[in-house]
Structures are given as structure tokens and as C-alpha cells.
Amino acid sequence: MKALSIRNLTKSYPNGVQALKGIDLDVEEGDFFALLGPNGAGKTTAIGILTSLVNKSDGTIQVFEHDMDQSLEAAKACIGVVPQEINFNQFEKVQDIVVNQAGYYGIPRKQAIPRAERYLKQLDLWEKRDAPSRDLSGGMKRRLMIARALVHEPRLLILDEPTAGVDIEIRRSMWDFLREINVQGTTIILTTHYLEEAETLCRNIAIIDHGRIIEKASTRRLLDKL
Ligand code: ADP
Ligand code: ADP
Question: pTM for the whole thing?
């Protein structure tokens, strides 16, 4: 099954910038996929549309065969997103941030609490569970973003520049964690402008530039060409 199927996705901002100029993209279930491109290519716009924060101008998107125009709630339930901007309430406690997110998806607290514990332990944040998020380091905040995005157990996890500004050691441990959940069955799409991140982690890569996909290939084929 396809985790994501995008056709002719187009976005013009009110100021006239054409951020996406007709994107076609398919991502298979189980894939670890990179959307690679320079700043300004349209990556964040694409993710904004996938998370309903940005309105598309044209095109269709299906998430595990749920059309985002026709079955938005079903599509959203399949997606977990780690945005680029850290956006926690700085006074809210780490564990509450994860548990409360589950409420947006109608998941009972009783079910959310053990899940939050599991993800906080896996992401090495359990000792910080009672700390307000403002006490966390940058790398911890990034990991908390991932825990929050997983609490409804999405089939597709989308990360926008997940390791931007994170030091190398924490980056490696985040990579290991993402590999692990991919092996366990979660489809992953990340955006990055680091070729190294795409080639280390991802099985397939699409290169986006100026709002167009200019290359799509398996990582191995792409590296042979470069
Ligand atoms: P990336 O994430 O690849 O850096 P973006 O999606 O952020 O790319 O940006 C794509 C293009 O759209 C850029 O030219 C950017 O300046 C423009 N853009 C992004 N957001 C807005 C906005 N809210 N209003 C107008 N233009 C925008
Ligand atoms: P803030 O006022 O700081 O945006 P919110 O309580 O509105 O705080 O949101 C906290 C987090 O939950 C944000 O990351 C936001 O993206 C996410 N969120 C808010 N509303 C929803 C929703 N309806 N479904 C899924 N996530 C949501």
C-alpha cells in the first residue's frame, strides 16, 4: 500500500510566490524517505499542507488511501508530524506534553500514560518527565517533539529538518531511534538539506528545488549518479 500519494500539488502564497509547482510523489508503506533540497525549495510548505497548516492551491493528497479533501480526520490520524519550530508551552511538564497531545486524537489518558512512558524512556527523557519543557536542552526538546508526534501511534511519521542544530552525538542517537521505529513498521519521511542525513538514513530520495521534484531514486542509484 502507498503511505502517501501526491498529485499535482501546487501552492501559491498570497504574495505571488509559487512555492510548489505541481509535485507528484509516492511513498510506499514501510519506506524511509527523504525530501532533500536547499533552503527555499518548498519542503516546509509541503509539510504544512500535509498537516493542514497551509492551504494548497491545487492537487490531491492521499494518506494510506484516505483523501485529505474527503476524509481529513482519517488521513490526519495516520500522520505524526515533527515540525521544525519547537512549539511547546514552556511551562508544561514533559510528560504532560506527550499525554495531552493524545487528547487531540481522542485517545483516553489511561492509554496515553503508558505510551508516553514508553516513548520518553526510549528517547532518554524519562528522568525529565516532571520538568517544564523550558528546562530542556535543544536536543532534548527535539526528542520530545518526536515523542509527542508518536503518541497516537501514527503509521506515517513526517519530520521537518529533524536534526537541524543538534550536535553530532544526539543526531546519531536520534538516527538510531528513527531506524528502530522504521524497522518496527512506521513509514518515515523527513526533509533535510544535508545529503549526508538522507544517504545515511533513507532508502529513497526525492530532490526538490524551486518547487519542483527534479530527481527521484533509490539512495543507492542516486549516489551512483552523483
Ligand atoms: P524550504 O522548507 O525548502 O526551505 P519553504 O517551503 O519554507 O522552503 O519556502 C518555499 C518558498 O515559499 C520560499 O520562496 C519562501 O520564501 C516562500 N514562502 C514560505 N512561506 C511563505 C509565506 N507564508 N508567505 C509567502 N512566501 C512564503
Ligand atoms: P499553542 O498555543 O502553543 O499552539 P496548543 O495547545 O494549541 O499550544 O498546541 C500544542 C501542540 O498541539 C501544538 O504543537 C499543536 O501543533 C498541537 N495541536 C494543537 N491542536 C491540535 C489538533 N487539533 N490536532 C493535533 N495537534 C494539535
Answer: 0.87
